[in-house]
Amino acid sequence: MHVVTCIAPVNIAVIKYWGKRDEVLIVPTNDSLSGTLSMEQMHAKTTIMASPNFKKNCIWLNGKEESFDNERLLTCLREVQRRAERDGANKDLLKWHIHVCSENNFPTAAGLASSAAGYACFVYTLAQLYSVKGDVSQIARQGSGSACRSLAGGFVRWHMGSAPDGSDSIATQVVPETHWPEMRVIILVVNDKKKKVSSTSGMQRSVLTSELLKHRITYCVPQRVKDIEKAIISKDFNTFAEITMKDSNQFHAVALDTYPPAVYMNDVSHAIVDFIHCFNKAKKSTKVAYTFDAGPNACLYLLESAVAETIALVNHFFPGHNSKNIIQGLPVPPANV
Ligand code: DP6
């Protein structure tokens, strides 16, 4: 019997991934860029056991047994095993079936990047089990696109790549977690219910129907990625924040331009947007940036110096969404535990 347990972080995109040019390989229509959160409050934890006594592969997600007969899971397993074989892994171990237990310590499928942390953790743990070396972001991407960005700390860029087999569609670290130690993320959990339109089907529909998506990926994202990378490297919070907010707004505009529309933000989300703009205006400089994934929950990027005041004001103006819903994070990478 061979057992490995790992944890992997959540990442929150500041330039959103929305659209695939290859649905099977999960290759995106644009580059994206995210911050990796600290694993204290939010992480996925996966234990994988391999044994000659197991009769079949099994998986439990948050305590509930799910079918292993899932294309994305099977692809990740096959790809890690293929890499292991190439690297000369123990042949017996590769023949054994596996049992996987995976848990998230935060709401699943509520637009809180749970699939990203979950697949990053699954692939990273498999790689440890079979002693696979080197970058596995290309494999994690085939579990859930955004998962490839959870394999490194700090700020991470997922390159869309151009190779037909997706081999250059990988994630690379822009800066490590030590680069901008004052950076914080606060998550305001507006609603932790499962979202109505999954990211997978929402983006598929956007690719088919949204004119705005074409404009976004051709004219907006390439420049934004360059500019935000520069802002991160030079620690220019104003520019970083403005690009982050504009990109979130444009992603949700694309979701609304989709037919039928995919509506992810709700009235509370929009009230948070208004609040952040009022706050920044009152401060005469940008102190906080919001970004929303495919759900109503707000992710705020801000510097440590603005945390106390922001939390106090959020608690005052959004009393129903008070401090128990606020999770603070600092960037870090996955780990063997
Ligand atoms: C809005 O990675 O969950 O969070 O590749 O189909 O599994 P699949 O989609 P997923 O989409 C995430 C979309 C997003 C933006 C982002 O994280 O970049």
Count of alpha and pi helical runs: 9
Structure classification: alpha+beta
Dominant shape: globular
Q: How do the strands of the widest beta sheet line up side by side? A: 8-7-9-6-1-16
Kindly report how far apart the N and C termini lie.
18 Å
Strand count, sense and barrel status of the largest sheet are: 6 strands, mixed
TL;DR of this structure?
The chain is α+β, with helices and mostly antiparallel strands and 337 residues long.
List the defining traits of the structure above:
9 helices, 337 residues, alpha+beta, six-stranded mixed beta sheet, binds ligand DP6, 38% helix
Description:
By secondary structure, the protein is an alpha+beta fold. The chain has nine helices and 16 strands. It has helices spanning 71-86, 91-95, 114-129, 137-140, 199-209, 211-233, 237-257, 267-283, 304-317, and strands at 2-9, 11-15, 20-22, 27-28, 32-36, 43-51, 58-61, 64-66, 97-104, 155-158, 171-175, 183-188, 288-292, 298-303, 326-329, 335-336. It has a six-stranded mixed sheet. The radius of gyration is 20 Å and the shape is globular. The two termini are 18 Å apart. The structure holds ligand DP6. Ligand DP6 is lined by residues 13, 16-17, 26, 32, 115-116, 144-146, 199-200, 293-294.
